Each structure stands twice: as C-alpha cells, then as structure tokens.
Amino acid sequence: MLAEAPTFGRDTFKLFDRVVESPHSICFYVDSWDEAVRQKNDYIYNGSRITDIRRTLPEMDNAKAKVQTAVNAEIKRRIEQFQGGAKLKHQSPHEWVPNASFVNCYDGGSESVGYHSDQLTYVGPRAVIGSLSLGVAREFRVRKVVARDDSSSADEKVQKSSDTARADAEGQIAIHLPHNSLLVMHAAMQEEWKHSIAPAQAIDPHPVAGNKRINITYRHYKENLHPRYTPRCKCNVPTVLRCVQRKKENRGRYMWMCHTSYSPGQEGCSFFQWAEFDDDGEPPWAKKIAKEGGDEIVSEKSCKEKAEGLY
C-alpha cells in the first residue's frame, strides 16, 4: 500500500459555494475489473463519477478474509450482548461480505478529515464498515449526533442552556488507532454518530511507514442499490441516500436527494423523496430484482424504465 499511496488523488467538491480539496488522499478499490468498469460508467459520488478505480490488491484480499471473519464475529457478539439478541431495524440479517474499499492516506500530522458520516447510497441503511489502520498511529474521534428541538425560544438564556446541554450530550470520544488495528463501525454508526481524524501536532513515526497512515475501509456494496434501480433527480443523475440526523420529528428516516451541486460547476436541483426499506434494509424493488435476476445487462433506456417501474 505504501507503494500505491503516492498515486492516490484528492477529492474536489463544492462546500458552501466554494470548491475545496480533501485534506488527505484517497483511492477506490473493487474486487474485479468488470466491477471497476461498472463503477466508472454507472456510479456517482458527490455528483460526479470517479475515474481512478482499481482492482483490489492481493495483499488487500488477504487482509480482507481476516477482516471479514473478525467483523462478522463482532456483529454476532454485539447482537447477543448489547441488542438483546435481536438485530436493529433495517440491519441486514446476512453475513457481511466486503466487496469494495476506500483507502485513505494521511501523510503527516497535518493531513486529516473533518467530522462526517459515510455515504449510505450503495451500502444501504444500518451499514457495517471494517476499518483497518496501517502505519503511524492517529486519533479517531467520534461524537453522537443529538437532534435539535425545532421550537424556537425567545428566551436567549433558555436557548443557550439548550445548546450547552446538546453539546454535552454529543460529547467527543477519542480512540487511539495503532498499526494493524481493526475498528468496526457497527450498524447505526453512520446514522447516529459522526467521526473524524483530527490534525496532530506531533506523531511518533512508524518504523516502516514513517509519518504515513493508511486506512482501508472495507464495505459491502449491495447489488439492489445499483444506480440503475435508485431514483434519479431532475438533473437525470442517480440520487444520494441520506439519513435525517438533526430534526427530532423525522430523525432516523432516510431520503433520496440530488447531490449534483457538490460537483464543481454544477448547480443541482431540489429533488427530494423519502426512502423506504423493509426490516432487513431491502428497498421496495429488491424482490422483483431477485425474481428477474439482478446481474442482467440492460440498455440505458431500459435501466431508466426499470427504475421508474420498480419504485
């Protein structure tokens, strides 16, 4: 991975009408060249396509087998010990099988990533992510997302007290991630928490990686969330799946939205549609896809017709 890292790119996207560049480098890997072609042609991230998609390296494959075993054991343990023996609503009952990974490189203490939740569009609700850290140790921070009370208060003291209480509830947990450690982001992590890698003023160099941290985030991409099935916005671009985090009345609901505006030079549209999933996290069209065969190759026109007919 150290040999590959210098060839990674940096994402550029719009944030508050400004074009910004990610403060670390990144690369996307999938398990076959056929899937790489599909990703380049069909999948959308932050309103645009990724052009540099690579096949999973043999070393990543070897690690993936161990990560898969460890993550599935942790999922089982968590359900038994912390969830009363029952999976969460929308959590998949199936074995977690990673088939794609984003690899992040943090070259030195100044490289970082701000608080965020990972995108759910292709992994679905209650997604599980296995995050493998290699190289120099860095601090992984998480904080709980606490819903806001939308009722406006004319009393400034009451509002300030509410803001303080919410900040205390959100808190901040710092987790030290040394070389060769595995962090499991369980179901509900992306819906209820945000995470970050903060800049570090001082770090202890790794004997091989030096000041670099390589982070492989293994994910399971669902076939029934391929862009040919999900809703398209008025820009005729596949939409992004988000979860309501801040508003109390709709907290935990999922929605399809336009995200073209994140792409430099694009304005986007106002498309919005509530997303529906069954208890196992499957979309409304999943059964029909399974019946017809989800891996079929169809034309762009029939893809659009199928998506419109299934939703």
Automatic annotation (TrEMBL):
Gene3D superfamilies: Alpha-ketoglutarate-dependent dioxygenase AlkB-like (2.60.120.590). Keywords: Metal-binding, Methyltransferase, Transferase, Zinc, Zinc-finger. Residues 97-222 form the Fe2OG dioxygenase domain. The keyword Metal-binding applies. It comes from the Eukaryota. The keyword Transferase applies. GO terms for molecular function: dioxygenase activity; methyltransferase activity; zinc ion binding. Residues 233-278 form the GRF-type domain. GO terms for biological process: DNA alkylation repair; methylation. Pfam families: 2OG-FeII_Oxy_2, Zn_ribbon_GRF. This is DNA oxidative demethylase ALKBH2. The lineage of its organism: Eukaryota, Fungi, Dikarya, Ascomycota, Pezizomycotina.
